[in-house]
Each structure stands twice: as structure tokens, then as C-alpha cells.
């Protein structure tokens, strides 16, 4: 497997608190990897290290075979799309203006190419009707779709998603799930996706691999099917789970047991 991203022995400490310890894994182009773990396990911290938001990370992070530290932030932005868990606009951008920001990170584009890229990202996320809305006026679900469009617009090699369905109502969750399925199918063999999530069923349905984080360390790295055959989730969350068979879902539906 030719790795798009390699992480070897990565650790992170902030304000003398160890958040991640000896993290190692690799990601091939086209893979969809879900990061599972309880609150405080280090999922968001891991995502931010991969995007060099936390440059304090120790160890080795290789992107396209080169150390992440060798890239400028502009070069990273041209290769990695990032949709954060939380975002508070500090400038009065319209939705379209915000999405357009993602086209300025890579190579110089003709105006027509830039406009086409923005239109495609907006169409994929189904937010054409929001184009002129101020970012500050959006609901949580609308904002999540806009953040996803902003991450997609530059056709990144690696897409980092931090809790893409958190705080969304069922309708918005289904929309995001549909978008992620479309991306997975359209970008197979090209764009890799790493998604931190609390949604076990989203992870099982979309991912080719699942990585469990516990107290800042990798607890397991396996296929979705392997999770169903053991006690990995019980060990990770210190809770029991049950599997419910659902037509059309190979892995069924996982529910916690009181």
C-alpha cells in the first residue's frame, strides 16, 4: 500500500498535559478512516495535528512522503481540506465568499476555474440557496454543510472531518451522510478521508478502517467487520453494545445497552 499519509510515534503535550502518546498509522489514497473514542480520548487533537494546527506535535508526520514540517501552510491547505467541529465567524462573509476562500490555497486558477470549483462544492453540499446568506445567520446544520463545502472546494488529497454530524437533527445528519457517501464513491482512489466521530454507525457504514483512541493512545486499528466480532467497543467505551440487524446495512445497527 502506497501511503498518502504516515504517522509514526506522534505525541502531543499542551500546557504540560499529555494529550496524545505514540500514535502510529498510515492512510492510502482513497481510504475512509473513522476515528472513534470517548470524550477526551484525543480525536480532535489528532485531527489538528494532521493539519498542523498543533505544530507542537512530536514524532513523524509524512504527507506524500515528505515531513509535514517541510510544507508551507499554504501548501498544506492546497492538499488538506478541513471541516472543524466548531466555527465562529469573526468576519462578515457570505456563504459563497467563505467557500471561495478555499480556492486561494493552491495553484493560481483562472477565474472560470475558480468559479466552477466553488459551484461544484456548493452543489455537492446542496447549499445553492444559501449563497448570499451571512455566515453568522446560519443554523448549526446549515453551517456544517457550508464548512464541508469549504473543505471540498480545493479538491484536496486528504479530507479531515471533526465530528461532521454533531449537534445536527436527523434530517441534516442524513444529508451529511449522503454527501459523504457521494464523496467516497466519487473520489475512490484519489481523496482520503479521516473522520473523527462519536457516531459508531456512521463510522461502520462509511469507513474502510476504524481506529479507536483511548486516553490518547491507539486502542485498535481494524475493519468495521472486525469490530462486530469482538469486544473492542465494550473495551473502548466501558459500555456494552448490541447489534440490531437492519435490511440493507451489512453491519446492522449498533446500540448501547444499559
Entry keywords:
about 260 residues, alpha/beta, Rossmann fold, 6-stranded mixed sheet, 9 helices, 12 strands, about 30% helix, globular
Structure characterization notes:
- Strand 1 and strand 2 form a beta hairpin.
- This protein is α/β, with parallel strands linked by helices.
- Helix 4 crosses helix 5.
- It has one domain: P-loop containing nucleotide triphosphate hydrolases (Rossmann fold, 3-Layer(aba) Sandwich), CATH 3.40.50.
- Helix content is 32%, strand content 31%.
- It contains nine helices and twelve strands.
- The strands form three sheets. It has a six-stranded mixed β-sheet with strand order 6-7-8-3-9-10, sandwiched between helices. Strands 2-1-4-5 form a four-stranded antiparallel β-sheet, with helices on one face.
Shape: globular
For the biggest sheet, the summary is: 6 strands, mixed
How far apart, in Å, are the first and last alpha carbons?
A: 41 Å
CATH H-level superfamily: P-loop containing nucleotide triphosphate hydrolases
Enumerate the strands of the largest sheet in spatial order, edge to edge or round the barrel: 6-7-8-3-9-10
CATH class: Alpha Beta
Report the total helices.
9
Low-confidence stretches: none
CATH topology: Rossmann fold
Average pLDDT level: 87
Specify Rg, calculated over alpha carbons: 18 Å
Tell me which CATH architecture applies here.
3-Layer(aba) Sandwich
User: Could you tell me the number of beta strands?
Assistant: 12
Q: Report helical residue fraction.
A: 25-40%
H/E series, N to C? EEEHEEHEHHHEHEHEEHHEE
Output the structural class.
alpha/beta
The number of distinct structural domains comes to 1
**Percent strand:** 25-35%
Amino acid at each position: 500500500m502506497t501511503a498518502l499519509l504516515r504517522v509514526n510515534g506522534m505525541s502531543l503535550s499542551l500546557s504540560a498535559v499529555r494529550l496524545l502518546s505514540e500514535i502510529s498509522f498510515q492512510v492510502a489514497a482513497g481510504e475512509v478512516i473513522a476515528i472513534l473514542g470517548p470524550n477526551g480520548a484525543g480525536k480532535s487533537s489528532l485531527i489538528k495535528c494532521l493539519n498542523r494546527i498543533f505544530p507542537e506535535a512530536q514524532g513523524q508526520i509524512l504527507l506524500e512522503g515528505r515531513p509535514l514540517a517541510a510544507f508551507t501552510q499554504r501548501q498544506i491547505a492546497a492538499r488538506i481540506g478541513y471541516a472543524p467541529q466548531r466555527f465562529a465567524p469573526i468576519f462578515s462573509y457570505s456563504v459563497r465568499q467563505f467557500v471561495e476562500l478555499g480556492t486561494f490555497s493552491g495553484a493560481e486558477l483562472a477565474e472560470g476555474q475558480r468559479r466552477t470549483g466553488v459551484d461544484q462544492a456548493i452543489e455537492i453540499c446542496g447549499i445553492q440557496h444559501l449563497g448570499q446568506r451571512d455566515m453568522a445567520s446560519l443554523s448549526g446544520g446549515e453551517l456544517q454543510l457550508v464548512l464541508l463545502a469549504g473543505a471540498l472546494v480545493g479538491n484536496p488529497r486528504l479530507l479531515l472531518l471533526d465530528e461532521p454530524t454533531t449537534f445536527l437533527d436527523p434530517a441534516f445528519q442524513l444529508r451529511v451522510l449522503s454527501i459523504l457517501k457521494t464523496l467516497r464513491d466519487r473520489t475512490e482512489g484519489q481523496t482520503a478521508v479521516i473522520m473523527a466521530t462519536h457516531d459508531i454507525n456512521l463510522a461502520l457504514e462509511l469507513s474502510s478502517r476504524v481506529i479507536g483512541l483511548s486516553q490518547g493512545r491507539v486502542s485498535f486499528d481494524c475493519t468495521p467487520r472486525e469490530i462486530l466480532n469482538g469486544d473492542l467497543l465494550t473495551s473502548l467505551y466501558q459500555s456494552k453494545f448490541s447489534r440490531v440487524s437492519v435490511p440493507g446495512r451489512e453491519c446492522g445497527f449498533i446500540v448501547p445497552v444499559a
